[in-house]
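FIELD: query
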Amino acid sequence: PAPAGLPGDPDPEEAVSDDSSRHGGRVRGFPHERGNWATHVYLPYIAQEEFLELLELLVSHARTYVPSLAAMEEFHLSLSQCVVLRYHWIEPFVRSLRERLAAFHRFFCVADQVKVYTNQNKTRTFIGLEVSAGHFQLLELVSEVDGVLEEFDLPTFYKDPSFHISLAWCVGDLSGKLEGQCLRELQDIVDGFEESAFLLRIQWEQIRCKSGNKYFSFPLR
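FIELD: result
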């Protein structure tokens, strides 16, 4: 497990306000309640300098359509929705994940298709890079993660997931402004970027689970 209390992590015992102005206008997917820990299983992506150069090109261009876009500061590919765990469930949940994921090997996927997403309640819009190769291995991982979620009677992942790495976000449903012409121009930037083929072929080496301010790592073999 990675150390708890990493910089920027909230103190789970602090009183939490739902004042959206404190976090860029984002709205919680579910209300905060003491003893509930927001939990998420994902593949972390460590951005290289060239990836950040591509990100800057994409976000700068997309801002000509939606000026409020903000670039993501960390990158990942989700294997679960954000679900709520009670504190005393965290240890058995992580133990079950570790057992189910122990047999998986490292693998590659390609994430090179620009796509626009909104969250379920349409309060945020995202630009992401969708996976075009490696979908089968990701579905196998999700199947095991779903099995753990079912043990704890928690929502499983989406039925037909569009696996992707989010690059930028904005408040509200602004998908209409980003799809069509803007999306085609962003795809042209990705296709024309010199390092694109190398950069966007990603080897996944570990799975992570974040629960509140606790991080757990599951290395792939």
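FIELD: remark
The chain has one domain: 35-214.
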